[in-house]
C-alpha cells in the first residue's frame, strides 16, 4: 500500500465534487459547486494544484473538451475520478469513521 | 460581447485550460478585474510554493529564524574566538561612529532642552549685496529694530523672543567674577516655556520699565551664590549696575546657546549695563531670535511668512538682499556655526567611516574564510534539498547575529566613554573657557543610528560571503577538496580585494595620524619667535566698570608704575593685542609703487613690548617715549613683512599708507619674526605701531617677572586690587596661550591616533585571517611540495609571496589616496608638509611590518609541519 493512500481534506472535497458533476467536471463548475456547498472560497490556484496532485497519484484523469466563445475560444479540461481515487476516498472515510466511532464532541 | 480580461494577467497565466476557466467565469459571472488578478496571483503563488502559502511560509520563516538562531549560537559557542574577533571588530567600527554621531547629535541636531522643543524655531539672516553692516558676534544675527518688525508682523509665532548671547559682565564682590549671561526680551522664558525653580522670571513690565532685575541660572546660583535659599530679592552688582535677583531657572536650563549662561537681564537695560548704544543701531547684528510656532503651523509656512517681512526690511536698505535660515533651533544653528560644524564633521565622519569600512571588510573576510571552510557542510545541505535562498538566509542570520552584539557593545562603549573622552579632549584647553552645557546622553536618534548602522553592517558584509559560499562546486566540495576553486578562483579574488581595501584604507588613516603626530611635534617645538616663560598678560574689564578714557589712561599709567616696582619684575609694557591670545586687529595698507591693497595685522605697543617678549629689533630702532605721546607716523615691521613689501631693499625709511586722510607711515625698525596670530603660519604683513596715550581700545599689560609664577601672579593681582578692587583681572601666562594654540593639534592627533590604532588592529586581524586561510586551503599542496623535498623555507616564501601581493597593492593605493587628500590637514600640521616623507615612509614600513608579523603568525606556525602526519 502506498504511504499516502489517505486523502487530505481538500483532496476529498475535490474528488467528491468531480463525482457529483460527472461529465461536466471542469474548472468553473467544480469551483462553483465546492463554493456553493461548503460556503468557503477556493482560489483557482489551489484547485488546480490539488487536481494536478490527484492526477499525479492516478486518482483522477483529464481530457480536453471543445473550445467555447465565452472562454475566448479556449478548450475546457474535463476531470474524472478514477477507481484508485474512489478507493482512496473510501479508505479515508473508513479511517475517519473508525476514529469517530463512539465519540461525542459535545461531551468533551 | 465578451469583455477583455487584464492582458498582463492573461499573459501570466500560462496554462490555456486554466486561462479558459478564468475567462469564462470572468465573462459569465461578471467578475471584476481585481478578482481576475487575485486568481492569477493564486496560480502564481501555488505554482511556486504549493498548498496554503501564506500561513505555512510565515511559520517557516519563524521556524527557520529560530533554527538559524540556535544553529548560529551553537556554531559560535564551538568557535568563540572567531565570534569574539568579529564582534570586537564590529564593536570598534560601530563604537567609533556612534561616539562621533552622539557628539554631533548633541551639538547640532538635538533640539533645545525645553518643553515641546520641536516647535522652537531659530531664525538667522544671510545677506547678499554690498550694503554695509555692523556686526557684534555674527553677521547672521538681528538688530533690535529688525526684531521688532519680525515680532509684530509675523503671524506664525505664538511668541518671538530676542536675546544678546555671550554677554560678559563682572559680578562685584570680594573677588570680582566674570559671568556670561544673556540680555533677553521679557517674553524669553515664556517662549521657551521655562518656569523658574524659585522666584519668578521676567514679566512684561520688566522690559517696559527697564527694571533692574536679573534671573540666575541654577548652576550660577549654586556655584556663585552657594545655593542661597533667600537669594530672591537680594541685590547683585553686574558691571557696576545694581540688579535685583527675581528668580532662578530650573536645573539643566542653561539658555539656548552651547555655552552655559549664568544670568538673564532684560534687554532694555543694555545702555546701562553694557554702555553701548546697540539697541538704537538699526544695522547691527547682535540679537539671536527664537520663536515658538503656533500649533498647526509648519516650517514652510513660517519661512514664507517671514521672508515677506525680510523683503520689507530690505527695502529700507538699498543694495541688500536677505535670505532667512529658519529651522528648529539647536545649540548650533547659526549658518556660520553650521558651516564650521559641517566642515569638521565631514572630515571626522570620513575617518570613522573608514574605520567601520575596515571593520566590515574584516568581518566579510572572516565570514568568507569560515564559509569556505564550511563548504562541505553547505554542500551537504544543498544536496539534501536546502534551497539557495534558505542558505543565504541562514548565513545572513549568522552575520546579523554577529553584528548585533557587536553594535550593542560598540554603542554601549560609546555611551560610557563619550563623556570622559570629551572632557579629556577639551581638557587641553585652558580651564577658564566658558563651560559647555552639552547633553551628551544618547537619545532615540542615536539609538536609531547605531541600530541602522549595525544592521547594514551585518547585512551588507554578510551578503557577499553568503551569496558566494552558497554556490559551491558540489562535487569537489563534497570530496573535501578545499582548494576546488584554487587560489586564483573567484573567491580568492574577492578576498584579495578585501585585503587591498583594508590595507589601503588603514594606511590612509595611519599616515594621517602620522602626519598629525609630526605636526604636533612641530607645534610643540615650534619657536613662536618670542619669549613665553615668565611672561604674564593682564586684561581688564574697564569698559564694563564704566571707565572713561582719561580714567582708563590713569589706571594704566598707575598700574604700569606699580607693576614695574614689584620684586622680580624687569619689564612692563602695554599693548592692544597679546600674541597668541585669539585676538587680532587688521586693516588694509597700500605701499607706494604697488597697486594692490594688502591685508595686514597690527598691534599698538609701548616701547618696552619688545624687551618683555625678547623680540630683537634687528634693524633700525625701537619707538621713543616721544612717539608715544605725539602723533608720530612711524612703525616697526616684521622681518618677513619687510622682505615681502620691499624685496631686496632697505626697509628703513620706506613708507606705507594705512589711512588715506593721514600722512604716510615711515618704517623706523624691523623686528624679528614672531607668530602672533597663528602657530601654523606667519602673518604675511604684520606691523607694530606706537601706542598712543589716548588709545581707546582696551589695553593689556604684559609683564616679565623672574619671580616664581604663583607669587608673581599674586602680587600682580594685588597691585590691580590696590588701584580698584572692582576691576576684574584676566591674568594668564604666555605658556597658557601657547597651550591654547596647541590644543587643537593635540586633540586632532589624539583622535586620529586612536582611529589609526583601531584601523591597524583591524587590518592586522584581516591580514592574519587571510593568510591563515590561504595556508589552510593549500595544506594539500604544501604537503605534496614538502614530501617532494621542498624546504620549509621555500614553502614559507611561497605562501608569503602569494599573500603579500594584495598587501603591497593596498599599500600603493593607500599612499596614493593619502597623498591626494592629506592637504585638508595642512591647517594643523604646523609647517610639516602634507607629503612629509617621514610620516609616509615610516607608517608604510610599520604597516608592512605588522602585515608580515600577522602573516608569520598565521602561516608557518600552524601548518607547514603538519602535513607530514596528517591526511592532507
Quick synopsis:
The complex is a heterodimer of chains A (108) and B (872). Chain A is α+β, with helices and mostly antiparallel strands.
Task: Tell me what the structure shows.
The complex is a heterodimer of chains A (108) and B (872). Chain A has helices at residues 9-21, 27-38, 44-56, 83-100, and strands at 60-68, 74-81. Chain A is elongated, with a radius of gyration of 16 Å. In chain A, helix 1 crosses helix 2 (27-38). The mean pLDDT of chain A is 86. The N and C termini of chain A lie far apart (35 Å). Chain A is built from four helices and two strands; from the N terminus they run αααββα. In chain A, 52% of the residues lie in helices and 16% in strands. Chain A has a two-stranded antiparallel sheet. Chain A has a single domain (9-100), classed as Arc Repressor Mutant, subunit A, CATH 1.10.10.10. Chain A has 108 residues and is of the alpha+beta class. With 872 residues, chain B is an alpha+beta fold. Chain B has five domains: 7-51, no CATH class; 58-110 and 335-480, no CATH class; 117-329, no CATH class; 488-527 and 739-872, no CATH class; 542-727, no CATH class. Chain B is 51% helix and 15% strand. In chain B, helix 12 packs parallel to helix 15 (444-469), helix 23 packs parallel to helix 26 (837-858) and helix 25 packs antiparallel against helix 26 (837-858). Chain B is globular, with a radius of gyration of 36 Å. The interface between A and B is medium-sized, with 23 and 26 residues.
Amino acid at each position: 500500500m502506498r504511504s499516502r493512500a489517505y486523502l487530505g481534506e481538500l483532496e476529498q472535497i475535490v474528488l467528491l465534487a468531480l463525482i457529483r458533476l460527472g461529465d461536466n467536471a471542469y474548472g468553473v463548475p467544480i469551483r462553483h459547486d465546492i463554493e456553493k456547498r461548503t460556503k468557503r472560497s477556493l482560489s483557482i490556484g489551489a484547485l488546480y494544484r490539488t487536481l494536478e496532485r490527484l492526477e499525479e497519484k492516478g486518482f483522477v484523469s483529464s481530457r480536453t473538451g471543445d473550445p467555447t466563445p465565452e472562454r475566448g475560444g479556449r478548450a475546457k479540461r474535463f476531470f474524472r475520478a478514477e477507481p484508485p481515487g474512489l478507493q482512496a476516498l473510501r479508505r479515508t472515510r473508513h479511517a475517519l469513521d473508525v476514529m469517530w466511532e463512539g465519540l461525542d464532541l459535545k461531551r468533551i | 460581447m465578451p469583455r477583455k480580461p487584464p492582458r498582463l494577467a492573461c499573459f501570466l497565466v500560462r496554462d490555456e485550460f486554466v486561462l479558459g476557466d478564468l475567462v469564462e467565469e470572468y465573462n459569465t459571472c461578471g467578475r471584476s478585474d481585481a478578482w481576475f488578478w487575485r486568481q492569477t496571483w493564486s496560480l502564481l503563488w501555488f505554482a511556486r510554493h504549493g498548498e496554503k502559502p501564506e500561513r505555512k511560509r510565515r511559520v517557516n520563516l519563524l521556524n527557520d529564524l529560530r533554527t538559524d538562531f540556535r544553529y548560529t549560537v551553537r556554531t559560535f559557542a564551538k568557535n568563540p574566538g572567531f565570534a569574539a574577533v568579529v564582534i570586537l571588530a564590529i564593536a570598534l567600527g560601530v563604537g567609533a561612529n556612534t561616539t562621533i554621531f552622539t557628539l554631533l547629535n548633541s551639538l547640532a541636531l538635538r533640539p533645545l532642552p525645553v518643553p515641546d522643543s520641536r516647535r522652537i524655531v531659530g531664525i538667522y539672516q544671510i545677506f547678499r549685496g554690498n550694503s554695509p553692516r555692523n556686526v557684534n558676534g555674527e553677521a547672521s544675527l538681528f538688530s533690535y529694530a529688525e526684531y521688532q518688525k519680525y515680532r509684530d508682523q509675523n503671524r506664525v509665532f505664538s511668541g518671538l523672543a530676542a536675546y544678546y548671547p555671550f554677554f560678559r559682565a563682572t559680578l562685584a564682590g570680594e573677588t570680582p567674577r566674570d559671568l556670561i549671561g544673556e540680555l533677553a526680551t521679557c517674553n524669553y522664558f515664556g517662549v521657551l516655556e521655562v518656569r523658574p525653580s524659585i522666584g519668578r522670571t521676567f514679566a512684561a513690565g520688566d522690559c517696559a520699565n527697564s527694571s533692574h532685575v536679573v534671573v540666575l541660572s541654577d548652576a550660577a546660583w549654586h556655584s556663585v551664590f552657594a545655593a542661597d535659599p533667600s537669594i530672591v530679592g537680594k541685590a547683585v552688582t553686574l558691571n557696576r549696575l545694581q540688579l535685583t535677583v527675581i528668580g532662578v531657572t530650573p536645573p539643566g536650563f542653561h539658555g539656548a546657546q552651547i555655552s552655559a549662561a549664568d544670568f538673564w537681564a532684560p534687554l532694555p537695560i543694555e545702555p546701562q549695563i553694557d554702555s553701548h548704544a546697540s539697541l538704537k543701531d538699526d544695522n547691527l547684528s547682535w540679537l539671536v531670535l527664537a520663536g515658538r510656532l503656533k500649533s498647526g503651523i509648519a516650517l514652510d509656512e513660517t519661512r514664507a511668512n517671514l521672508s515677506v517681512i525680510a523683503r520689507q526690511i530690505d527695502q529700507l536698505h538699498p543694495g541688500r538682499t536677505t535670505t532667512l535660515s529658519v529651522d528648529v533651533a539647536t545649540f548650533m544653528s547659526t549658518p556660520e556655526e553650521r558651516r564650521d560644524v559641517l566642515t569638521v564633521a565631514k572630515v571626522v565622519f570620513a575617518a570613522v567611516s573608514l574605520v567601520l569600512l575596515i571593520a566590515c571588510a574584516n568581518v566579510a573576510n572572516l565570514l568568507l574564510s569560515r564559509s569556505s571552510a564550511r563548504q562541505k557542510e553547505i554542500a551537504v545541505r544543498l544536496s539534501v534539498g536546502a534551497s539557495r535562498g534558505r542558505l543565504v538566509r541562514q548565513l545572513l542570520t549568522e552575520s546579523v547575529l554577529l553584528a548585533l552584539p557587536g553594535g550593542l557593545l560598540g554603542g554601549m562603549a560609546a555611551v560610557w566613554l563619550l563623556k570622559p573622552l570629551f572632557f579629556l579632549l577639551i581638557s587641553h584647553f585652558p580651564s577658564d573657557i566658558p563651560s559647555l552645557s552639552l547633553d551628551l546622553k544618547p537619545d532615540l536618534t542615536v539609538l536609531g543610528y547605531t541600530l541602522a548602522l549595525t544592521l547594514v553592517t551585518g547585512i551588507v558584509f554578510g551578503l557577499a560571503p553568503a551569496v558566494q559560499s552558497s554556490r559551491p562546486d558540489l562535487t569537489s566540495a563534497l570530496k573535501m577538496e578545499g582548494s576546488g576553486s584554487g587560489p586564483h578562483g573567484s573567491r580568492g579574488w574577492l578576498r584579495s580585494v578585501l585585503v587591498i581595501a583594508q590595507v589601503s584604507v588603514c594606511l590612509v588613516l595611519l599616515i594621517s595620524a602620522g602626519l598629525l603626530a609630526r605636526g604636533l611635534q612641530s607645534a610643540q617645538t615650534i619657536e613662536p619667535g618670542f619669549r613665553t616663560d615668565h611672561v604674564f598678560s593682564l586684561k581688564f574689564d574697564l569698559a564694563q566698570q564704566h571707565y572713561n578714557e582719561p580714567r582708563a589712561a590713569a589706571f594704566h599709567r598707575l598700574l604700569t608704575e606699580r607693576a614695574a616696582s614689584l620684586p622680580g619684575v624687569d619689564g612692563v609694557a602695554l599693548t592692544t593685542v597679546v600674541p597668541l591670545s585669539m585676538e587680532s586687529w587688521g586693516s588694509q595698507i597700500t605701499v607706494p609703487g604697488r597697486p594692490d591693497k594688502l591685508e595686514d595685522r597690527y598691534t599698538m605697543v609701548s616701547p618696552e613690548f619688545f624687551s618683555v617678549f625678547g623680540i630683537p629689533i634687528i634693524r633700525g630702532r625701537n619707538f621713543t617715549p616721544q612717539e608715544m605721546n605725539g602723533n608720530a607716523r612711524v612703525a616697526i615691521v616684521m622681518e618677513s613683512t619687510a622682505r615681502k613689501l620691499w624685496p631686496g631693499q632697505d626697509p628703513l625709511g620706506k613708507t606705507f599708507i594705512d589711512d588715506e586722510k593721514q600722512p604716510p607711515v615711515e618704517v623706523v625698525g624691523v623686528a624679528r619674526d614672531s607668530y602672533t596670530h597663528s602657530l601654523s603660519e606667519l602673518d604675511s604683513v604684520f606691523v607694530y605701531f606706537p601706542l598712543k596715550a589716548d588709545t581707546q581700545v582696551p589695553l593689556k599689560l604684559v609683564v616679565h617677572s623672574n619671580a616664581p609664577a604663583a607669587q608673581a601672579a599674586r602680587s600682580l593681582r594685588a597691585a590691580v586690587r590696590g588701584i580698584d578692587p572692582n576691576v576684574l583681572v584676566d591674568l594668564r601666562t604666555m605658556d597658557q596661550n601657547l597651550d591654547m594654540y596647541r590644543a587643537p593639534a593635540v586633540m586632532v592627533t589624539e583622535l586620529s591616533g586612536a582611529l589609526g590604532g583601531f584601523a591597524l588592529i583591524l587590518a592586522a586581524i584581516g591580514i592574519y585571517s587571510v593568510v591563515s586561510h590561504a595556508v589552510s586551503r593549500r595544506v594539500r599542496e604544501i604537503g605534496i611540495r614538502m614530501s617532494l623535498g621542498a624546504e620549509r623555507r621555500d614553502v614559507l616564501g611561497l605562501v608569503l609571496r602569494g599573500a603579500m601581493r594584495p598587501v603591497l597593492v593596498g599599500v600603493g593605493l593607500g599612499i596614493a589616496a593619502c597623498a591626494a587628500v592629506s592637504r585638508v590637514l595642512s591647517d594643523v600640521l604646523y609647517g610639516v608638509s602634507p607629503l612629509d616623507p617621514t610620516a609616509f615612509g615610516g607608517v608604510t614600513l610599520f604597516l608592512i611590518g605588522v602585515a608580515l608579523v600577522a602573516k608569520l603568525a598565521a602561516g608557518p606556525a600552524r601548518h607547514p609541519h603538519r602535513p607530514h602526519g596528517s591526511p592532507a
